[in-house]
């Protein structure tokens, strides 16, 4: 999730664990926020190339084993910062819960979080919530804000707990909505008699009304969108043909193997203007991907990450209109689609 969500979640968990025992509310919230954002500092590490930097983000710093090992040290530092060494064991519980909740909410996005290192490096990704979702973050933010504002500590504590309950209920809603949309899409694909190998259902930016669909087929992949407010269960797909010979030719390249494993097969390899382009199909949308890399076809080394194509004046109005059920094609699809 985004940095604001993580620091707010960290603060909320700290308040839930120690809010009844801390006279220094500001320090308590600050310590929780700092602990909540610590795992994401691995983004500052350089693993040698842009693809490795991507697939090794949310790795050791997000793994339960390493978080458990480091929790006693950071709990001690937090207890000293808040002048609460007498509550060290409660701070240990808070720190561990903050670290674990950070990784757990990250695993609910589609990116991939390697929770089980060093025992395995499988990237866990439920994909039921977008990396930025105000409906998850705002209850936490209001709960922590009311805790800081209220003069009567029990009232502030209850407000924080209510914020956690509401955000958790929303998270459960995202899972239920994803499951429901998945069932509808499977029926639509069956009606189209489309044979597919893999299916991805993940929310469009900032909401859980509109869902992005990606299917891997024998001849390439296809992208579509479905809103919970659509008038019917029909599905319009934009098909993209891929070159299996190209994948076979370059499948031994380290960067290709890394992204293929990390994306669980939702990737594409193509040539454009003499360049070899490697794309993660899970994040962004066709014509505007978050992770697309230029690869040296000789050495296999990633040369650069391409900037994401943005057209906010067109994309944002389309997003909300499509989420409200208007059957509009993606603004990045060819005009004849």
UniProtKB/TrEMBL annotation:
Cite the entry's keywords alphabetically.
Hydrolase, Membrane, Transmembrane, Transmembrane helix
The keyword S-adenosyl-L-methionine belongs to this UniProt entry's keyword annotation = no
Q: Reply yes or no: does the keyword Membrane apply.
A: yes
Signal peptide start-end: none
Coiled-coil ranges (or none):
none
Among Pfam families, the record links this protein to: YdjM
PANTHER family documented for this protein: HYPOTHETICAL MEMBRANE SPANNING PROTEIN, MEMBRANE-BOUND METAL-DEPENDENT HYDROLASE
State what protein this is by name. Answer: Metal-dependent hydrolase
Q: What is the originating organism of this protein?
A: Rheinheimera muenzenbergensis
